[in-house]
Every structure is written in C-alpha cells, then in structure tokens.
Design a protein that fits this description.
- By secondary structure, the chain is an alpha/beta fold.
- The chain has 21 helices and 43 strands.
- Strands 1-2-3-9-11-12-13-14 form an eight-stranded parallel β-barrel, surrounded by four helices.
- Helix 16 (about 615-625) links the parallel strand 21 (about 605) and strand 22.
- Helix 6 packs parallel to helix 9 (about 335-370) and helix 7 crosses helix 9.
Length: about 950
C-alpha cells in the first residue's frame, strides 16, 4: 500500500505503538445499578481542579488546608501544576522552591499523601506552563523555527540592507519569545512582485556572510525575501522556577526522551514508583507559536515527500504572530496560477511532515513514557501544526477545552463561532477521537476564563459545563484553583480565573455544582454516545491555502461554518462524530456502514472538501456502492493534496468521485449553509430523508441534545444554553428507542428521578433557563411519578412595608436600606460596588381561601436561598427561581426572607488602586462593564 495514502499510519508502525489501546473508565461496582451510581457517585467521578502552585511558593500546612477545602467542596482530584508567580502580587516572603529540586519533590510527596488520605487523586503536569521546557536545555534541544521576512520594493533602485535588519524584519511577533534566541539568515531572494516560476528569483544568499545585502532593483515592483532560522524560538509560557526558559524541541525525539526521562528518573529516585502517587501525567496544548523546524527536517521532508523543500520554503511560509496565528497573507509576491497551485500543494506537504514528526517524536514517546511509569497519559493533543483529530487517538485520557467567553448564555452567533459557546472547536474532534478508540473518559480543561474573571456565576459555569458535555467531554478539570495562603491580601494570588476560592461569596454553594457534575460524569462515563453520521472537515485544503492554524482558537475557519454543521445536526435530533481521511482509509465497509473500531456511520458529510486522499476517496466510493451516503457540501472533491505524483493521484480521486456520482441518490451535492445553519440542516434532513432518532417540534439555536446508551438503556440529554429564557419542547423519539421501556426524568441536581406517562410516544419538556434534562428509557417501572412545577396565574406579592434589605459585604462591612420596589443593584448608587450576601425581608397577607403553593422570585442575579415563616424553602442557583412553599404558607400575615449571593466583579472594579483587581476588571481585554446583581423580581405567588 502506498505510504502517502495515510497521514499517520507509518508513524504507528515506526513507533511500535498501536492507537487501539483501551483504557476503560472507572466501572460501576457489579452490584450497583446505573441509577445507584447516579445517586451517589464515587470520588472518581467528581470534578478535578488544576491546582496552580503559584511560583512554587508553597508550604506543607497550606497544601494540606487547600486539599481539605477542595475535598469538602466535592472535588475528586487535583492536577499539580507549577506556574509562574502572578505579577503585581506580594509574595509574603515565601521562598520559591525550584521544580524537581529535593525540596519541591518533598512537597509533591506530601501533597500526594495528604490527597490520598482524603480520597483525592493526583495528576501531575509535565514540566511547567506550556509548552514545557526549561533553563537546563542544551542549545540543540530548544525549539527552532524558520520564518520569513519580506520587503516590498519599487525599482529602479540601488538597494542596500543589513542582515541585522532582515532578521529584525523576520523576527516573529509571538507572545512568548525567548530572550536568548539566536537568528541566522538561510537565504535571501529577490523576486518580481508577480512570480510564475522559481527561476525568476535572484539568489542573493552569497552576500549574507558580509553582513550586508546589496542589489540593483530593476524597474517595476519586486519583493525581497529573507528566510531566517530562529534557534531557541520561544520560552515557556508561565513557566515556574526550574522549568522556565526555552521551550523543548518537540521535533527532536532524543531531546524529548531525555527531558521526560530526566523528570521521571529524578522523581522516582526521591519518591519511589510514580504510580503510587499519581493517576496520570499531563501535557497541556501544543501551542508552539510557529516553531516548525529541527536539524533533520529538510532531510525528512525529502525522504517522505520525494523532493527538496528549501528552494520553495520562502513562498510556502506566512508571517506569524501571537500564538503562531497567521493573519497577513499579502506580505510577499503574488503568484501566477500554476506557481500558486504548486506552492499550495507543497505547503500541505510541509504541514503534513511537521505533524508526522510531532506525532512520531513527541506524542507517541510521551504516551509510551507514561505507560512505562505505570501511569495514564492525559493530553491536550492539539496546537499549531498538528493533526486536529489523530492526536487524540493515542492518549489514555484525551482532553479538550471549555471556556467562559463573551456571549455565553445570551447569544449563539453564526458570524463568530466563539461567541456564545463554551466548548472550543477542538472539543468535538477530541471526543470523536476518543469514541473511535472506544474510550469512555474524555476530560476537559473547563471554565477557563480570561474575559469575565470575578463575574462568573454558578449558573454561567453550569451552562459552560453543560455545553462541554454536549461536545462530548465528561470528565471536567476545572481551571482552576490558585494556591493562595489566607494571609495574602484580597483577592489572593490569582494567576487565572475562574475564581475558585473560599473568598468567593458563592463558595459555600459550590458543592451544589460539583455534585451536579459528578452525577452526570458518573453516568456518561459508563455510556456509549450514539452517532450514525460522520463529518469530514477540509483540513488538507485549509493547510494548503493558509497553513495549519493554532487550535483551539484558529486564526480563521475554512469554511467559516465548519463547526456550525455538527451543532445543526444535533439540534435537529441526530448525532455525529468528526473523522479524518486517515480514519476513512482505515475503515471497513459492511452492511452499508463505514466502520472504524466501535463506531459506524451510514452518512458522511464532506465540508467543502476539494482535496481528498485517494485511499479515502476510494473508501467513500465503496460506502456509496454498499448503500451508504456521502453528502458533499459546497463542492465535490476533485484532487488529492500534496505535490509528488499529483497528476496520477488527482486522477484517482476524480475516478472515485465519479463512481459515487453514478449513484446520485446516495451521493449528494448540497449548497453551503446560509445564515441559519440549524434551519439549513432541517431542510436537508427533510429533503433527503435523513431521519433523526428524535424529532424536535421546533429546533432552536439555544437547544441541543445528545444520545447515549448503556446496554439496553437509552439516554437523551436536552439542554438550554440561554440564561435568559426558557424553552418548551415536544420531542418524539424513534419507536425502537422506547419500545417496551419506561421513560424517566433523572435530576442530576438532586439525584432523584420521576416516571413519565407510560406508553407515550411523545414527551413535553419545559427547559428553564440554563437547564439540562436527562431523559432515560429503561425496563424499570416502579418509582414516583414525575411532577413538574405547575403553571398558573401568578399574583405579585404586595409587601405590607417596603422591602428591608441588608447587605453583608465581602470586605466585612454591612449596608442596609429599604426598597419600595425591587431594583437591579448595579442601578442603585450605594449598592453599585457591592459584593457579598444581600438579604431581602418582607411580610405579606394571604386570604384564608385559595391554595397558593409556589413562590417565584422572578429575575435573579446570583444564588438564591429562601425562608418562609422561618422555614427553609431551599436554594436555587440557576434557571427559574421557583420554590415549593405550600407547607409553609398560612392565612394572614406571612414573613419572607430571601438571600441573594452576588459575584465579586463590581466590587473589584472599584479597587482601582489594587493592581490585581485592576488587571482583571479594568485593563486590556478584561475591561468589564458593571454586572447586574441581586433580586429584580417580580416576586409572585401562585
């Protein structure tokens, strides 16, 4: 078989490590039912936290205190993560302990021992910050990059420029440059501003040793290209003492192995077997900022691709900026059609070669090293210049990212895929890879937050987590918990948000959130997510045109609606996985399905794919011939990616696509989606008979679903991402899902369940704001009926006197007042900068007749807790704030007390003299408007 057929197959054989390594999720005990596991999830299913050891300024007593604090809050494990000490923060004179020093390792051992006694698991990040490296790296072990600088010139002109100036022009504006980087010019070319052939370039490289380039620019427009190598390309982002400095060369397997073995050998010599202390070793995302070179890359390129790279490299490269993103595409000459096509094909070959080398020389050695030490490999296997799906096939616990970002809970933009979405674009790729390999545990760096730190509510965190579940993750690692001694001035040591801290006013209620997430994780880590459709992104075309992007936040998406298609499929009652050309090529066709591992797909969507590997095209043609379906959105593939032997390979693709087109009812060309992708897919679904497994009466951008199976038990998750409005749904599952089964609603907040009407074929769901419902179909028929909160005419409460309001500020002060009517506290001058707990008190009259049973607080900003006539009515931290009060009300006068717990952001904005508060609320991208706070109402009873 031609090795060019596969993107990574040869890497596996060379490494001697198969992708198909199953690591099961923590199983339920034999005697426990799924529902019992849901009711009382063991610690293994509780959320973890990323535990930042800020500057490695840590001490045993505080480590023990924080572990107890986390265990009491419902956390199940910690990821020990040493990082740089936060700027503008007093260190209290606490000594920094360098990474891997004997003192640091003793602290690690102490933390692991304390955690084990508390029933907590420990993970450990490799190195510090990301990507990992260290001050101790030899020069040839440091990340390298080859970058391009250009100068546009107008002749006739006698031109002179120093080599220093060319290096300065090429020096990339990345976010974390290493101060000790060294630069040397590899080549200098003068080319016409419109170039058709390589021979039109004039090579001036011989002048480089002189330190000056001199040339005569002919009449017309020209571009001077300088190809520059940067040794020590970048430094570790947020590196802690002992593991800061230059980043490791991820393309150098010897350097990678040396680094990893140095870490494990040093730890083992001090601690003993690492498996006695840790669950897994963790690698953060491969945000290499454009590092793209190693000593033998040119030779490897020639061996793998069959031609020389260097003459073409100046034209292949784009200018890179922060995090390695490419933003500017007109920095150099314009290409004639044939020359441009050749460069695009070669650019793909370059990106593919880089990705293969990272896979073979970094990822697989990391996974193998973890297992040699008896530990699981947990990894964010994505970044710039790596396979977006294949990387997550190998790690035992693949991990994505879920952020609290602008618009979350309020919008679902189709112009910017980031707006309104907590899951990043990699999550569906990561979770799809896990499912392809039969892995049931998919972790997520969850609640990452740089936009609204100190303003996150438990409700917003719930929406973010629920969206992460929708994208396929089920093991949250909260981002994060800052090591911060109590004596540190408020708000403590804060490197990143979300602000998980006992100093946060809502911290006493945080266990409600962790219990909710634990129940869902316990169930979903037993379950197999359903998907009978697959989506193939146009990765080869993207790499060819623009180069590999920086995942999980690519500078551009091509096509721009790529992530919106899988969302639309789920919103319309079906489910899908992402796949890759390599997965397609390794699949088998049977019974009209494309099958890979435990997954099978009857329909494959190609997202404006123009370039397709011949082996993948041939397999799709087999699928169509066998009764499956291929839906090409926007274009039929008409070529193969890459340069070598491209005419023959193009012909193979065209021939395979022609075989598909010969069966037009199963090979469809669909128009690209317009603005409303959800409605677009509903039209595709209806026109082409793509029957969903559950029909939703009114698909909605804020409402989505996912289907899971545990044996014969079927589970449907429905979630509403809006924090402002509820949604009313009528759903109709396909008959075979529910035949002979009882329908239940399981409540992940309380661990209870209620029976729905038996033998029903459709079900009505009322999803409140930020609400998720878990619908379960099983054989159990005994249990209480589900009793929804009834709807009816509500009567506004008329207090006998104005509302009495008392605020206990987080700074220790107390403020009080009286409100004739309820208002948003940010609009009331003396309350604008308040943070803490606000207690509203009122009395009201009820007539002897009538059956008032429910209290609705109306609009609430914060956690709400209610007492009626001195009796607790409960706590609500998201969604509708409706309380069952029928046993508490009495005819005549009643007394109502409502406690609202706010966020900290408005208060932090007022601390303009505090550099930490100012940085997170009033500077740069963290400039935050005042947030709504308190009880707005109207408060009604019915």
């Amino acid at each position: 078989m031609d090795r060019r057929t596969f993107i990574w197959q040869g890497s596996l054989a060379a490494a001697g490590l198969a992708f198909r390594t199953r690591v099961p999720a923590t199983p339920a005990t034999a005697e426990a039912s799924l529902y019992a596991l849901f009711q009382h999830p063991p610690a293994a299913y509780r959320p973890f936290v990323r535990w930042w050891w800020n500057g490695n300024r840590v001490e045993c007593d505080e480590l023990a205190r924080e572990l107890r604090l986390l265990q009491q809050a419902g956390i199940g494990g910690v990821e020990i993560n040493p990082v740089k000490f936060p700027a503008n923060t007093p260190d209290l004179g606490i000594k920094a302990i360098p990474w891997l020093s004997p003192g640091w390792m003793d602290l690690v051992r102490f933390a692991c021992t304390e955690a084990r006694q508390l029933g907590l698991a420990c993970d450990l990040i490799v190195g510090s910050g990301w990507p990992f490296g260290g001050e101790f790296l030899a020069e040839n072990e440091r990340a390298q990059g080859v970058v391009v600088g250009t100068k546009k010139l107008q002749g006739p002109l006698d031109y002179e420029v120093s080599v220093y100036e060319l290096c300065r022009e090429a020096d990339p504006t990345i976010s974390s440059p290493f101060p000790g980087r060294k630069m040397d010019v590899l080549s200098v070319l003068l080319v016409p501003a419109w170039i058709n052939r390589l021979e039109e370039a004039t090579d001036l490289s011989a002048q480089v040793p002189s330190g000056t380039i001199k040339c005569r620019i002919p009449e017309g427009k020209y571009v001077l290209y300088a190809l520059v190598r940067v040794q020590g390309f970048m430094e570790v982002i947020q590196g802690a003492p002992g593991a800061a400095g230059p980043v490791l060369d991820h393309y150098n397997e010897a350097a990678v192995r040396k680094y990893l073995d140095r870490m494990s050998g040093t730890l083992t010599a001090r601690l003993g077997p690492l498996s006695q202390h840790f669950r897994s070793l963790f690698t953060d995302s491969l945000e290499l900022e454009g590092a793209n070179w190693c000593a033998d890359l040119a030779a490897e390129f020639r061996r793998r691709r069959g031609y020389d790279l260097e003459p073409w490299l100046p034209f292949i490269l784009f200018r890179i900026t922060a995090m390695g993103n490419t933003w500017v595409y007109d920095h150099g000459a314009e290409f004639g059609p044939a020359f441009g096509e050749r460069i695009r094909r070669m650019r793909y070959d370059f990106e593919r070669t880089k990705a293969e080398l990272i896979h073979e020389r970094f990822l697989l050695p990391f996974v193998r090293w973890c297992r040699q030490n008896g530990l699981l490999a947990r990894m964010q296997a994505y970044g710039r210049g790596y396979f977006p799906l294949e990387g997550s096939l190998a790690p035992d616990i693949p991990e994505g990212e879920t952020w609290i970002r602008p618009g979350l809970g309020a919008e679902m933009s189709e112009d910017d895929y980031r707006q309104g979405r907590a899951y990043t674009m990699v999550n569906k790729l990561v979770s799809s890879a896990a499912r392809l390999e039969g892995k049931k545990r998919v972790s997520s760096e969850e609640l990452t937050n740089i936009h609204s730190v100190f303003n996150e509510t438990l409700e917003l965190m719930k929406v973010a987590g629920d969206q992460g579940i929708l994208s396929g993750t089920n093991h949250p690692v909260f981002h994060g918990f800052n090591y911060a001694p109590p004596q540190a001035p408020f708000p403590g040591w804060v490197l990143y948000g979300t602000y998980l801290s006992e100093r946060n006013p809502w911290w006493p209620y945080f266990p409600l959130f962790t219990a909710y997430r634990s129940r869902l994780s316990a169930v979903l880590q037993q379950a197999e997510p359903f998907a009978d459709m697959a989506v193939l992104p146009a990765t080869a075309d993207l790499w060819s045109r623009y180069g590999a992007q920086n995942d999980p936040f690519p500078g551009l998406m091509d096509p721009p609606w790529q992530t919106l298609v899988w969302e639309a499929i789920h919103r319309n009652g079906s489910a899908c996985d992402f796949i890759s050309e390599g997965v397609i090529a390794q699949s088998v066709i049977r019974d009209g399905y494309l099958r890979y591992g435990p997954r099978r797909y009857h329909t494959v969507f190609l997202l404006q794919v123009e370039s397709l590997e011949p082996a993948a095209a041939a397999r799709l043609a087999e699928l169509v011939a066998a009764g499956g379906r291929v839906c090409c959105i926007g274009a039929f593939p008409d070529k193969a990616p890459g340069w070598s032997n491209h005419l023959q390979r193009d012909g193979e693709v065209v021939e395979a696509v022609a075989r598909m087109q010969a069966i037009p009812r199963r090979c469809l060309l669909l128009p690209p989606p317009g603005k409303d992708v959800t409605a677009w897919y509903k039209g595709v679904q209806e026109q082409h008979g793509l029957a969903p497994y559950v029909r939703l009466d009114a698909p909605d951008p804020f409402v989505s679903q996912a289907r899971y199976r545990v044996g014969a038990t079927e589970l449907l998750l429905f979630m509403n991402s809006s924090t402002r409005e509820g949604r009313h749904l009528v759903i109709t599952p396909e008959p075979e899902m529910i035949a002979g089964k009882q329908a239940w609603l399981w409540d992940p907040e309380t661990g209870t369940r209620g029976r729905l009407p038996p033998d029903a074929s459709s079900f009505t769901l009322d999803l409140g704001p930020a609400e998720l419902k878990l619908l379960v179909f099983d054989k159990e028929r005994r249990g209480p009926l589900y009793r929804p909160v009834p709807k009816g005419g509500a009567q506004a409460i008329q207090p006998l006197l104005p509302w009495s309001v008392t605020g206990r500020h987080t700074n220790g002060t107390v403020i009080s007042g009286a409100f004739a009517e309820l208002k948003d506290l940010k609009e009331v001058e003396e309350w604008t900068r308040f943070a803490g707990t606000v207690t509203y008190r009122a009395s009201f009259e009820l007539p002897a007749e009538g059956r008032q049973e429910w209290l609705n607080l109306g609009r609430v900003f914060g956690v709400s807790e209610v007492w009626v006539n001195g009796q607790p009515a409960g706590t609500k931290w998201y969604g509708h704030r409706i309380f069952d009060v029928k046993k508490m009300l009495r005819p005549g006068q009643n007394f109502l007390e409502i406690k609202i717990v706010t966020t900290l952001g408005n208060y932090l904005k007022s601390l303009t003299g505090d550099p930490v508060a100012r940085f997170w609320t009033n500077e740069g991208r963290a400039v935050q408007p005042l947030q709504s706070q308190g009880l707005v109402g109207p408060v009604t009873i019915y």
